[in-house]
Hints:
CATH topology of the largest domain: Chitinase A, domain 3
Number of strands: 12
Shape: globular
Number of helices: 5
Structural class: alpha+beta
Amino acid sequence: xxxGTIVHIDYDLYNADxxxxxxxxxxxxxxxxxxxxxxxTYKPMITVIGDGRLIKGFEEHLESAKEKEEYTFDxxxxxxxxxxxxxxxETVGMNVLMRSVRDPDTLAIGSQVEINGRSxxxxxxxxxxxxxxxxxxxxxxxxRYTYTIVKVVKQKKARVQTLLEMNTGREDFEVKFExxxxxxxxxxxxxxxxxxxxxKFSLVRTLREHLGVGVVxxxxxxxxxxxxxxx
Length: 231
């Protein structure tokens, strides 16, 4: 796949050593392996080839992949989430841990905690001390991917709309091209999305790098409020 290609990918991610399923985009696979989450909508992942959003080993494999073909391959830790680093396992006082969690009753071994802006896993808590592992949960793990590129987004307008969905999780944008310039009409409710300012700058960068657009205009429309007449 050429760098900058926008694709939809169905994949299953396994621990290659234990063969346990870690993640999947397919609901039937999640049910088969008893990790189904009813709160989640299962659908293909959207990504831009070569954009650096995925781990190195997956990015490299995608470069030679073809649409509609299924692949299975392994990724060593150095091309995934790295090897485990003993220096990232730290011991803190229980008072530090308790000040950092909103609800101490939810704490349990294996829980994710955040201390001073760093996320880690609680490994031990006793005798007034707590041990936190700040390694990525998949550090040191050999991964196995089974995946298929189920769709390649080719039409220019559709590519912009797909990037908008990928960056915001929303589909209610209007996109209009005039030669290489693009105007994107925003849904009014996006003003309440605190992540939008950051997503917008990421989107502009991607549009220019991979779609070759010229001027990018974000258009806001605020309709007048309708006041019901009293009978």
